[in-house]
């Protein structure tokens, strides 16, 4: 970390802690320079950075001031899904979300797409070129069912950071995390079985259950600590649950990292009721804090955890390179792998293996962690600025997804339809529930660097939310009553 | 086609028709030259080609002679599988076959791997390089569920030759034909349903049924004309069959092309019993005769045919680019596509689209059709030469797979174990039956150009078959009794 970055972080922290209040003038460049023993230009660069992050505002000839802002909205309370197994619905809404992603004109605020435009990803193109130049005939033939040995070797090494001591032979390469989840679910469950899931949870998991005729029981989930183990235990006692699917690290959509003691308790619980744990770690490497959080797999003592992951969120989803560590279910997972795709594309496996072995992975990962953390700061600031009061917003600990909870009566489907003309796409909350709950919620992505377009989109979004909230009157009162934040709001207010 | 190739084919035809008998001296180079009005060197090249194809043998100073050979063994009779739905077994044997394919020392006579070493495939490497150089960010992002529009466009055009008038929007791209079959089966069937299949049929189809808890009823199948429509009708009357899976063009493993009137009759039958038809056309383009045979899909009037195919057999399986034309099941197939892999690797889709649009596909396909047809000639000649009598061999009309039926008591599993030390791998017949029938059969591939190694392998194989046949005495008598073929046999006989 450079000096100016260090200084900027220090000042940001002081602002966050209230040492410098909103609207207060910050120390002059000269003062800070002598106070911290750094050059004038270092302080200036630090201030530019903070300005970029919208934490401070320059006023001509009088220096920098702390940008006034609203208090952080509260985080959502623990969820309260239906407490019985249900058949999964919502496919139409998922399809709608997926179809919107191919429209280049639309601002994809609802997509799970990472930022693939960073310079640290450039060597991937070279890795692909190199593979093509080598004309290795292995690339054209059927790969083994297990996947490319050199890639499995690299993955085993990467996973040490997540607490897993694995060999290449413990890993099966898949066509993205999607296939990893799909074959894992199918390996441990039959048609008609019941699986417990976090609520809300990733729609891909839910649709897979639907496709295989498996029912889901949604378990209350806290946006800071994850799935309620107490509720899960009750569910286990009441229903013959075969497996639990969780996204414990940088959860999609809630952004939490499940505390380690709760991960341990989950393993114990699964052992007590002899259930499998399917762990989706696809965002795990993108935790803001270093070292990254451990996986539940690393606590697995009897092979009941199936760890699923991919390079889709860290590198690029178009590669379709994922993996599964199936533990005791290895043979069944392998059989399902054969059934589903036979083998994985060799070319992209080779390119990824080359990218990692040449040392490009870690620098890229570091960059993405910092980038997403900064994006989050700016994004939440904009959300605070443009959204009305009376909402709850998650505080993600990694990844690039945020969950916004609006008053109960709010209908995100209607909002989505409204936004279509403005070419803005969001993920409606009901996608993340088996039974279509969370219509009053949105999942937004801050993967892409905030531009004026993003700000305009959030202003439109905020205004639409405000209008909708006004039209359901009790909510309106709440919103107005608690609207005691100091600053003027952009377009939203004017449009009333 | 060059002049010398034309002449060689003409002479080959005459030999096949018996105009030139085994051991007979062929016309001199000079005679042929004047007879056909071609140059001496053209005749010489034609003779070299025939020599390479082992149809003629040069004798120093006396010219060329027709190579003596045995009569063609008969084709297998129509199969007689179990006439009720069964649960599928045989996964262990399939896994064994798949694992052998990564051993580079082993001669893969049992694999479904095409020849990827041909020069007409070289532009594919360039297509991949070009994609990498363009650094098109679409390559990194999620593709649409449907697949790359330009590739679907190209596929729609290619399929005109198979009688199908399709638009790009009728097609969904998949991770190989494997995924196409898997999602098609799952789209039309539930757990516990019954599907009718040809017997024998591709093990990938069978294992998919197993994975989804679907039972198979194997229908008697003729090695020249395909599935018995009479037996299928009886099965329809007796069981609630949801769908029929067929490989009507260049069948795997029997090599037949189903006659057009039988394709029509199959569609009528499926309509009568309201069943879906899942058509695997993965070898269809490799039919020896031009124009290629039509697909059943081209006869589909009410959208009940799901056509599955890929570039795995024509270009290269490592690409994992396939497709499905799901007809009326489009939405369900799309849902299953989302569940199974989410989307298909973009890079390989772009490379294939580039390869086709730049005009490399048709020349490559032509070359492969000719290559496989020649390989087949040489391969069957070697089989005749090295295998004992009392066997039946299919006469493939395309593709690169041949099916050898040995006497009932023969155990191909034991043979396979025996061959392991010699580093030869075959596909045991029982892989191709739901209930493990056809232990007395082998599927062999002639995709790779015959080398001395292939000949040695077939000699070892033939000898092992002969030994095994001797050990089961009635078969032994049969083999000896009918062993009236004119020529001495290689290693096999000496080892007695």
TrEMBL record, chains A, B:
<comment type="similarity">
    <text>In the C-terminal section; belongs to the class-I pyridoxal-phosphate-dependent aminotransferase family.</text>
</comment>
<dbReference type="InterPro" id="IPR036388">
    <property type="entry name" value="WH-like_DNA-bd_sf"/>
</dbReference>
<dbReference type="InterPro" id="IPR036390">
    <property type="entry name" value="WH_DNA-bd_sf"/>
</dbReference>
<keyword id="KW-0804">Transcription</keyword>
<dbReference type="GO" id="GO:0008483">
    <property type="term" value="F:transaminase activity"/>
</dbReference>
<dbReference type="InterPro" id="IPR004839">
    <property type="entry name" value="Aminotransferase_I/II_large"/>
</dbReference>
<dbReference type="Pfam" id="PF00155">
    <property type="entry name" value="Aminotran_1_2"/>
</dbReference>
<dbReference type="InterPro" id="IPR000524">
    <property type="entry name" value="Tscrpt_reg_HTH_GntR"/>
</dbReference>
<dbReference type="Pfam" id="PF00392">
    <property type="entry name" value="GntR"/>
</dbReference>
<keyword id="KW-0238">DNA-binding</keyword>
<keyword id="KW-0808">Transferase</keyword>
<keyword id="KW-0032">Aminotransferase</keyword>
<dbReference type="GO" id="GO:0030170">
    <property type="term" value="F:pyridoxal phosphate binding"/>
</dbReference>
<dbReference type="InterPro" id="IPR015424">
    <property type="entry name" value="PyrdxlP-dep_Trfase"/>
</dbReference>
<dbReference type="GO" id="GO:0003700">
    <property type="term" value="F:DNA-binding transcription factor activity"/>
</dbReference>
<feature type="domain" description="HTH gntR-type">
    <location>
        <begin position="1"/>
        <end position="69"/>
    </location>
</feature>
<dbReference type="InterPro" id="IPR015421">
    <property type="entry name" value="PyrdxlP-dep_Trfase_major"/>
</dbReference>
<dbReference type="GO" id="GO:0003677">
    <property type="term" value="F:DNA binding"/>
</dbReference>
<protein>
    <submittedName>
        <fullName>GntR family transcriptional regulator</fullName>
    </submittedName>
</protein>
<dbReference type="InterPro" id="IPR015422">
    <property type="entry name" value="PyrdxlP-dep_Trfase_small"/>
</dbReference>
<keyword id="KW-0805">Transcription regulation</keyword>
<keyword id="KW-0663">Pyridoxal phosphate</keyword>
<dbReference type="InterPro" id="IPR051446">
    <property type="entry name" value="HTH_trans_reg/aminotransferase"/>
</dbReference>
